[in-house]
Amino acid sequence: MNIITDAWLPVVTQDGQKTKITLAQLSDPNIKEIDFPRLDFQGAGYQLLIGLLQTTFAPSDREQWINLYESPPSAEALQNAFHPVIHAFSLTGDGVAKGARFMQ
User: Fold this and answer.
1) Most buried of the four, 25, 34, 76, 90, by CB within 10 Å?
2) Comparing C-alpha atoms, which of 87, 90, 83 is closest to residue 57?
C-alpha cells in the first residue's frame, strides 16, 4: 500500500456519503471534509496533507496562491506533483521502493 497512490483517506462528500479517496483527489469539489474517527487523527491527517502539499505543490508567489485558491488544481496536477515522492510513502515495502517503508 502506498499513501499517495492508494485510496485510503476517509472523507465525507457534499451529500453526506462516506468514502475513501487518493490524496490526488483532494481538490474534488464534492469532498466536504476529511473524516477520521478521532479528533487527534483528524488533526494529524491535516498536518500530513499540509506538509505534503507544502513540500510538493507550494505556490511560487502570492499571485499563484490566489490563482490556485480560485481554481483548485486537478487530480492529475496533484498526482504529477506528488510523483517525485511516491517512493517515500510505501507502507508495506512494495511498489516503487521495494523494501523501504513509510517513515524509514
Assistant:
1) 90
2) 83
Q: How many CB atoms lie within 10 A of CB 54?
A: 10
% of the chain with per-residue pLDDT over 90: 80
The length of the chain is 104
Closest by alpha carbon to 55, among 89, 91, 9? Answer: 89
Output the CA–CA distances (angstroms, integers) from residue 2 to 42, 48, 49, 73, 94, in the order listed: 19, 14, 15, 21, 8
**Torsion angles phi and psi, residue 6, rounded to 5:** -95, 150
pTM greater than 0.90 (yes/no): no
Nine cell digits for residue 82: 506528488
